[in-house]
Amino acid sequence: MNSLQRTVLTRLLTGYTLLFFVLRFFEHVTPSGLQGPPLFTTGLDLTYWAYRLLHLPQLLLMNKTGAVLFDLLVVLSGVLVLLFPLRRKWVIGFSILIALYAISFNSAAMIHTVTVDGLFLVFLPFWFGDMERSGLAWQAIRYYACYLYFSAFIWKVFIGNAFLYWGQGAGTFKLNLVDYLYYHPDSLLSGFYRWFLRHEWVLNGGHVFTILLEGAMGIGFFTRRFDRTLFWIPVLIHIITYFFADVFIFELLVLNFAFLNGAQLAAIGQKFKLYLPNRSPTGGHLS
Amino acid sequence: MTNHRIFMPIKKIIAGSYWGRLFYRDKPLFFLISLFFALCLFFNLIRLNITPFFLFDMYSVKMPSQTDYTFYELRYGNDRRFEIRHTWEQPAKMILYEPLSEYMTMKTDHGGKDPFGEYLKNDWGPRHPRFRSLIPYLYDSSAQFEAFPAWLKRYLSRQAGGPAGHVYVLKKTVGFDTNGWVREISSDTALAIP
Hints:
heterodimer; A: mainly alpha; 0% strand; B: alpha+beta; 7 helices; 4 strands; 48% helix; elongated
């Protein structure tokens, strides 16, 4: 990885993460908008145990000043990363704060949401100052993205057996969209949805297709030749699940940037002027 | 000689792969990344979700169609229904409805006690006596549960953009007819917050 690639990548990841954080701010789901929630989940997740034992919910969520300061710090550190993408201290600061936000949100929502999972890992390669080490670590994120979807495939096919249950597509659809169909029976979308409910085989077939898409991500373990396709598969999966399972997991797509090669990063950097001037030209691969 | 011929190309392939390059160029990082993936696999095998070694097992169990479905409806002020309509607003929906659902379950099914706390005290604690002193900090107390209705009203006011006034929660039970229309089966007041 050279400094140009690192600059473009850091700005892309931070910009993408900040965009969703700001969206969440306006939805009142960042600490300053949560109004001091009283209930938290921990489960048997030791990271959440540490979060709770360190009294971080009291500091970040229940204390009004702490909550406002936390939101400000996330935005401020994010902006500093955008301005100085090669300064590791801002990247480290921002990534710790965003991981803390992810834990705080999940704790207060009392559910471990998958959508924020990518935020825990995606910035770690940029903690390293050495460019080669950073590039090698960044490539591991690509393998992690493949692993994530492929393990979801393994769970559905071999462990939970949802893949072999033909009615799963319709079952998931009804469970997640019943309230929308109840409250908006006359909307255009509800009309489409009812057509699908009268032809459940389409929902069930679509469900099987989505699982196969997850399985296809396993190709990425063996070759980089299909990275262009592998970039779009998670996008397609999350669009399908957005409309047919009523779930919004687009923040997880932050991992998708790992499928971009050096030339694509350079092109993005030039198009959106994300690179720093007077830097060396980029090569093909990131290590 | 034969072994040499067989293993040389394999060694070359490995050395040229990402893992090979990682091993030869940066051994500490190789061990760090390998350990991470090994732990991911381990926690999947024992089916324990520990951040950041996540289990991506959502929707992996069978979910058959049901004869009826239950969800909560929030009403506030002069009987106005509160709604988060769009899927992209899902985080707000989760913050409102997931704790509400937990609170209602705790209230109706667990006699006002956090079931996770009961599990820690009665099951996990006796098996891990060294960590017993940590247990009171790991679950929600009765005082926290009692604070929930006031928070719900506060947060609803924030979401609604003004004082929520009288808030009540309806438990709706509905079902699908053969044409895909949703019909109400019952609607009961589950919680009232003056």
